[in-house]
Amino acid sequence: MTDVLARYEELVAAGELRPDEDQRRTAERLAALARQLEEQPARGSVLWRMLRRAPAPARGIYMWGGVGRGKSMLMDLFFGCVSMTAKRRVHFQEFMLEVHDRLRVERAREKGDPILPVAAALAEEARLLAFDEMVVNNTADAMILSRLFTALIDAGVTVVTTSNRPPKDLYKDGLNREHFLPFIALIEQRLDVLPLNGPVDYRLERLGGHPTWYSPIGQAATDAVRAAFFRLTDYPPEDSIHVPSEELAIPGGRLIHVPKSLKGVAVFSFKRLCAEARGAPDYLAIARHFHTVIIVGIPILGPEKRNEAARFKTLIDALYEHKVKLLATADAEPINLYPEGDGAFEFERTVSRLMEMQSRDYLALGHGED
Ligand SMILES: Nc1ncnc2c1ncn2[C@@H]1O[C@H](COP(=O)(O)OP(=O)(O)OP(=O)(O)O)[C@@H](O)[C@H]1O
Ligand SMILES: [Mg+2]
Asked: How far is ligand 1, taken at its centre, from the CA of residue 29, in Å?
């Protein structure tokens, strides 16, 4: 096992990260948790069986703070340092979609409270659940979270999560919030709540001062978004051929190939996103999963490209609604992308959104926040 704090300090010493006292403190706490997790007997081991019941889980952590404070970075560092295999890192909203799917299956069996068997199955699969970007903005989630997480922790799962809000502000002003309050109490009692809310938005700093829309398409534009990708992901540009790809699952069972996917940043070609038969569910999955999307090769769309234009509009709506940061290389400025054709009038809103998405205020918003 690599020590989380040592690794953090290495990155600071190497100049990859700027020293940040909140981050260091959090890394220290994460390091202690990683050690504790390693010391627990593995499920099914002789020692575990001698205990007869799941040992009390190591106390989890809730990191919260404004955007770009390094929450996901620390979570990745921590997760990579934990060597046990029964661990899972998942985007919170995707996890909840999966939970609802599993609940549906359980309910069809009509046997008592479906949450308990679902939690038991999840606990069987992972002793550490690491969630990125906990947000609660729908009633369906709000109503089950308390029971689900109580059952998970009772079954021996350690929960580590990041969020843009302190627990008390989750599901703020939500419908029937009184039923949600036990979840807040649960977090405050059973997780360490650590603020990571210093003055510096490191992501904005990395994007800051650089434009996000590059036209025309050409070497200069390609070099610029390439540099942005490496700045955002800390990936060494000389290893660019090894940047991982990903198959992102779309609810309903389809997949979309993401040619470059790293640390919440995805690169797609316009062709893949908008010239194939894709629709809102694909775009919503992308918008939920990635905080930053780079689209390369957006052409000027003539009237005959009305399907591409319509898909592009749906895509931008999804990205905009989830506050996804967009970088693009395009043959024209937004205003000249689709000047005439079916839906060109509605496309004006897309243009306006594309303009707003380049603003510093938009770039400073949290992913997926209301
Ligand atoms: N101390 C630091 N020095 C330099 N860069 C940093 C530092 N901490 C984080 N970063 C970089 O800043 C960017 C944003 O960090 P990260 O993605 O972890 O933010 P976050 O808190 O998860 O934000 P969000 O709430 O939007 O998800 C990343 O590229 C990360 O590597
Ligand atoms: Mg993050």
From this structure: 18
